[in-house]
Input
Amino acid sequence: MSGLQTGHEGGVLRLTLDRPDKLNAIDAALARTLREAFEEAARDDAVRVVLLGGNGRAFCAGQDLSDPGVAPGSDLGATIESAYNPLIRAMRALPKPVVARVQGVAAGAGANLAFAADLVIAGRSASFIESFSRIGLIPDSGGTWMLPRLFGTARAVGLAMLGERITAEQAHAWGAIWTVVDDSELDATAGMIAATLAQAPTRALGAIKRAFDEHATLTLDAALDRERELQRVLGATRDYREGVEAFTAKRQPRFEGR
Ligand code: LHQ
Output
């Protein structure tokens, strides 16, 4: 009903958008369910990585434009406030990595949902469209913040103003996504990367995510201070102890995310 499939195995929580007839367009119910899933993932120690994908031929076509809540003349700010801002905040506040597995088109808020992940793994069929300007809007779902950081300002402005589709290869060549693989290898590659992250020292990964988000607007001096504080906390974790012991003993570490 909510349009989201979930599954949990080996520390990997799979969240799969499941409205394939609408190219996984997001309505109010799906935005809420997805946000709640990220919030629950934050509370559940057994979840160490989230793998976000979409069923069917597309990743996500953004806001469901047939939803009466976004009909022309309605208060779009209310939709942003109730649906998209809490969703993106929940993703970025999650102290665990989010991997996006993208096949087919990712448009509007769907593109920015992918870009809000920590790592984007795209199939060759994937494409990204900042389609907002085509309907008279600006990039939301964090796009105005994320796009210049991922693509550089000149390309971010071009993407946002022209609303042109770019291929996965283009996004990769521009340094905005982690990797592109054949679609036949997409599931396996994204699954392998998620499984690797699920064995990693989760608290360090969460701190990396937080530091990169928060330090972007700091001076180097202030960032150095924050790094000291994060390192101080991580130095007291079991995973740091395990990492150093494993290195010394020349064996593979077994991180527990603690
Ligand atoms: C859709 C959608 C869709 C409903 C395909 N909605 N049905 C935030 C808050 C407030 C207000 C507004 O916005 C936002 C954030 C945003 O995300 S704004 C941007 C919203 N998204 C778009 O503008 C993209 C609209 N979709 C498209 O441009 C195309 O569908 C793309 C380029 C994504 C895919 O094109 P095609 O591969 O040619 O597929 P299609 O257009 O034939 O779509 C397949 C079906 O999916 C079709 O339904 P039908 O019954 O005719 O088979 C579409 O109507 C439906 N669909 N996107 N966003």
In short: The longest strand covers residues 4-9. The beta strands are 4-9, 12-17, 49-54, 98-102, 105-107, 119-123, 127-129, 165-167, 179-181. The two ends are 35 Å apart (CA to CA).
